[in-house]
Design a protein that fits this description.
single chain; about 290 residues; mainly alpha; about 80% helix; transmembrane helix; transmembrane; EamA_dom; EmrE-like
Length: about 290
């Protein structure tokens, strides 16, 4: 059984990962480039940073033949997730984009028992429902007949891709280093989207270098590596529900840097999400 000090350190690591990853919302809105170009450069920069880090730390990049297909598939899924998520951000705002994505804990709670043959726990259904209630109050005024409809739909598809990627990698994080796994995923995503760079003016890309470097280093290389490492200590569903605090962080960052001030209903929704995080923290500790 994990001691209390170790458990708290794992929860702290997860929350630090969430803060880093939460910068994706504000950065996705800030960088003024076509979405495929943003994701291609984000992935390429993340691969560069992670490759250097693995070499510096002496982390092996060797992959067993039986694990190549799952890692390749996870790279395709992360590329799809990033693309759809950033389209949701571009077509709406930080709150709607992030909240549509954060249906993925609920999706995970359904998929994990089916794919990993784990026991279905009723508490996860309840906490998933609590998160959905929080999402409703965070964005109660969006109209499905408005321009936000497409953003919500692609956000849900992004959530599905994210949930599948996390479940696939759950079985690999005990074997491979998180930085190494993220290095390969970034390489695959960058390779898939590299052709998009030929259709964008180089000077325009250079003018956005601050946001692109932040996406590649802070959001992806650091944030997602820490996030993958959390799977060593918690189930995929537990990590998914605990990480539901990410929209709260993201909305706060959006309010600070983009002046997208949340309403009182948004604050109430955030409280519901944080409640689910606290409940799952104590439950996972026991």
């Amino acid at each position: 059984m994990k001691n209390s000090k170790g458990h708290l350190s794992y929860l702290l690591e997860l929350n630090i990962a969430m803060v880093f990853i939460s910068t994706s919302g504000a950065l996705g809105r800030y960088v003024d480039l076509p979405v495929p170009v943003i994701i291609a450069i984000r992935a390429i920069l993340a691969f560069f940073f992670l490759f250097l880090y693995c070499k510096w730390k002496g982390i092996s990049l060797k992959v067993a033949s039986k694990d190549r297909l799952p890692i390749i598939l996870s790279g395709v899924l992360i590329a799809l997730h990033w693309l759809l998520y950033f389209y949701a951000l571009k077509w709406s705002n930080v709150a709607i984009g992030m909240l549509a994505l954060f249906t993925y804990p609920v999706i995970t709670s359904f998929l994990e028992p089916l794919m990993l043959k784990t026991k279905l726990q009723m508490i996860h259904w309840f906490l998933g429902f609590l998160v959905l209630c929080g999402i409703y109050f965070l964005a109660p005024d969006f109209n499905m007949e408005s321009s936000y409809t497409l953003a919500v739909l692609v956000g849900l598809l992004s959530a599905l891709a994210y949930a599948l990627r996390n479940i696939i990698l759950k079985t690999k994080v005990s074997t491979y280093n998180g930085s190494m796994l993220m290095c390969y995923q970034s390489a695959i995503a960058g390779l898939l989207l590299f052709p998009a760079l030929f259709f964008t003016d180089l000077e325009l890309i250079i003018s956005q270098w601050h946001g692109l470097v932040a996406l590649g280093l802070i959001t992806t290389a650091i944030g997602h590596t820490l996030f993958l490492n959390c799977f060593k200590h918690f189930s995929v569903t537990t990590v998914s529900i605990l990480s539901s605090v990410q929209p709260v962080y993201g909305i706060l960052i959006g309010a600070l840097f983009l002046s997208e001030i949340p309403s009182w209903t948004t604050i109430f929704g955030g409280i519901l999400i944080l409640t689910s995080v606290v409940i799952e923290s104590f439950r996972s500790y026991k």
